[in-house]
Write a structure and sequence with these properties.
Layout: H1 2-24, E1 41-45, E2 50-52, E3 56-58, E4 60-64, E5 77-80, E6 86-88, E7 93-96, E8 100-108, E9 111-120, E10 126-130, E11 133-137, E12 141-143, E13 145-149, E14 162-165, E15 171-173, E16 178-181, E17 185-193, E18 196-205, E19 226-231, E20 239-241, E21 249-251, E22 260-264, E23 267-269, E24 275-276, E25 280-283, E26 292-301, E27 312-320, E28 323-332, E29 335-342, E30 377-385, E31 394-400, E32 403-411, E33 422-431, E34 436-438, E35 442-454
Parallel strand pairs: 2-9, 11-18
Antiparallel strand pairs: 1-4, 3-7, 5-8, 6-7, 8-9, 10-13, 12-16, 14-17, 15-16, 17-18, 19-35, 20-21, 22-35, 23-34, 24-33, 25-33, 26-30, 26-35, 27-28, 27-33, 28-29, 30-31, 31-32
């Protein structure tokens, strides 16, 4: 009997040792040990529903049982549906790479959980104020603007900007960046977007600003038009480019009457070359559809103005579909007239023609009756009405110093299959084409510019 008891004790001890060893290795029969079969779902969470480009966050995966209880001690595998947008390390560290949306997965065997992650690119990293410096007489204004971009270079067109003046006794600045000169001195104007800032130095002089140029008080703007933009010497300022054909504009406080003064020459232009000195862009697509546009501006050519051999001076461009209307000055010598060209080659009446120009393939239209006088300010007005795509039913009506010049209603602004709304306005003064020589400097001055538009098609009499 004593021997049997010993054998039994050894057997019990052996079984106990064997059971303890299995539990230590993770016995599936032990309810305290998680297994793939006991996991019903995996919940995936991030601290925030979206990440900015460049951000790094730790994701959390929580395996749960069928009853919804969290199961600890489980290893998951991390995956991203698009590594160009979002990457994730083996331990759940998530990195946002570019703007977009991607799925973040956590898997354990056949069980997977996921969460949608939006990657945004909206935090300013660069702010640039233009112009960098300005000289302004007491009592006048200068409009400052900002270019804002993210760390990836993505432009933030509608981002809020906080404008502040370093010394309000010298100059104040409005919420839109309009600086008003108060007293003589130099002041820094600061533009801040989120936590990024840039400055412009405004020098205020005691010279009083002259009144704006007014060459003709008459306006033929239709009453249904809504203002799109105004530029004048007291809101945008006066600009004079360098004497070489570059895109640079330099502040000149002596030109407060003028939006821009452009110097052409001395230069010898190669054949088929065009002398352009800069652009002022105004996209209109955000206000589309615009089917009628009205432009009023003041223009002066220097007394020594010489037209290019093509006899063309392009002033503005108004884009519609793939086509653009070109208000400009056409002629030679003292016969300089305000005309509008259509750049649409499918127009059966005016394929690339200045309307009123006597040229092959251009429909014969009476030229404008009045001439530009060099060395004097003139007011030009133009009404553009879009056409039905593919039809010659668009309109051009112009005035010079309040007097009617051209009125036609058979222009094709939009060919078949294109958008017939006006989408962009440019101040783009180009000195013709076909080469030519300017032996001494000559100047084009542009005064107040008013631009308006409507979604209506303006027809009939215009007051």
């Amino acid at each position: 009997m004593r021997g049997s008891s010993c054998v039994f004790s050894v057997l019990v001890a052996s079984i106990a040792f064997s059971l303890n060893a299995c539990v230590d290795r993770g016995d599936p029969t032990d309810p305290s040990t998680p297994t793939s079969s006991s996991i019903s779902a995996v919940a995936v969470k991030l601290p925030a529903p979206s990440l900015e480009v460049g951000m790094v966050e730790n994701a959390v995966a929580t395996p749960t049982s069928a009853s919804g209880e969290a199961i600890s001690g489980v290893t998951v595998k991390w995956l991203s549906s698009d590594n160009s947008i979002l990457t994730v390390s083996g331990n759940g560290v998530v990195s946002a790479r570019k703007m977009g949306t991607a799925w973040l997965y956590a898997t354990n065997g056949p069980v997977a959980g996921r969460v949608s992650v939006d990657v945004t690119d909206s935090v300013p990293a660069v702010v640039h104020v233009s112009p960098r410096s300005a000289a302004v007489p007491v009592g006048s204004n200068v409009q400052l603007t900002t270019t804002i971009a993210t760390s990836t270079g993505r432009a933030l067109h509608d981002h809020a900007t906080l404008w502040t003046s370093g010394d309000t006794h010298l100059a104040t600045v409005s919420a839109t960046g309009l600086v008003t000169a108060v007293s003589a001195g130099s002041v820094r104007i600061i533009a801040t977007a989120s936590d990024v800032a840039d400055t412009s130095v405004v020098t205020v002089s005691t010279v009083a600003a002259p009144p704006p140029v007014v060459t003709n008080p008459t306006s033929h703007e239709p009453t249904t038009m809504a203002t799109l933009q105004d530029w004048d010497g007291h809101s945008l300022g006066a600009w004079i480019p360098t004497s070489t054909p570059t895109q640079q504009f330099v502040w000149d406080a002596s030109l407060q009457n003028t939006v821009m003064q452009m110097q052409y020459g001395p230069v010898v232009e190669p054949a088929r070359s065009t002398y352009g000195v800069g652009h002022l862009y105004l996209p209109l697509h955000a206000r589309a559809p615009l089917h009628s546009v009205y432009l009023r501006a003041q223009i002066k050519l220097s007394a020594n103005w010489v037209q290019n051999p093509s006899n063309v001076l392009k002033l503005f461009e108004v884009f519609s579909g793939r086509t653009w209307a070109i208000p400009g000055i056409y002629g030679y010598g003292s016969h300089l007239r305000f005309m509008v060209a259509n750049d649409e080659p499918q127009d059966h009446n005016y394929p690339g023609c200045f309307i009123g120009q006597q040229a092959p393939d251009c429909k014969v239209v009476t030229p404008p009756p009045d001439n530009f006088t060099r060395g004097e300010w003139h007011t030009i007005e133009v009404l553009l009405v879009s056409s039905t795509p593919g039809l010659n039913n668009g309109r051009v009506k112009t005035w010079l110093d309040g007097k009617p010049q051209t009125d036609v209603s058979d222009v094709m602004w939009a060919p078949v299959g294109t958008d017939n709304s006006f989408r962009q306005f440019d101040l783009n003064p180009l000195w013709g084409g076909l080469g030519g020589t300017i032996s001494v400097p000559q100047f084009l001055s542009v005064g107040q510019i008013h631009l308006s538009g409507t979604n209506q098609y303006i027809v009939g009499q215009v007051p």
